[in-house]
TrEMBL record:
The keyword Lyase applies. Keywords: Amino-acid biosynthesis, Aromatic amino acid biosynthesis, Lyase. It catalyses: 3-dehydroquinate = 3-dehydroshikimate + H2O. The active site is at Y22, H98. This is 3-dehydroquinate dehydratase. Its EC number is 4.2.1.10. Pfam families: DHquinase_II.
Length: 147
């Protein structure tokens, strides 16, 4: 099984940016944790970009080359209809993940324009949310008309 993990803007600053919200661990720590949890069972590719177009290109390239995609669109969550459309344009299952509980934060963070393009959204469980997302891809049977 192959799964792509996409992290959006500012997630390269994990461990430095607002550690009271996002924790003290880095993006490299996150990637290591995911690989260790599923070692020898899943082939992961990791991608991070601060640029919307690069994320869209990666989604297009990933179509049918992965069994699933975990995406944390970062701030693009709240306004990138382009990323939402890119997710809708591919047949690969996509799960949206957020480290913090966005529903307990500022009002603008509580709306996701990308979540409805995904098979589901996981929010508020820290790095463990990515593990939950991978398990969702492994175990989720999608219904008729869904990804």
């Amino acid at each position: 099984m192959k799964i792509l993990i996409i992290n959006g803007p500012n997630l390269n600053m994990l461990g430095k940016r607002e550690p009271d919200v996002y924790g003290k661990n880095t993006l490299e720590d996150l990637e290591y944790s995911i690989k260790q949890t599923f070692k020898d069972t899943i082939d992961f590719e990791f991608f991070q970009s601060n640029h919307e177009g690069c994320i869209i290109d990666k989604l297009h390239e990933a179509n049918c080359n992965f069994d699933g995609i975990i995406i944390n669109p970062g701030a693009f969550t709240h306004y990138s209809y382009a990323i939402a459309d890119a997710i809708k344009s591919i047949s690969t299952k996509v799960v949206e993940v957020h480290i913090s509980n966005v529903h307990k934060r500022e009002e603008f963070r509580q709306k996701s324009v990308t979540a409805s393009a995904c098979i589901g959204q996981i929010t508020g469980f820290g790095f463990y949310g990515y593990i939950l997302g991978v398990n969702a891809i492994i175990n989720c049977e999608v219904g008729i008309g869904e990804k």
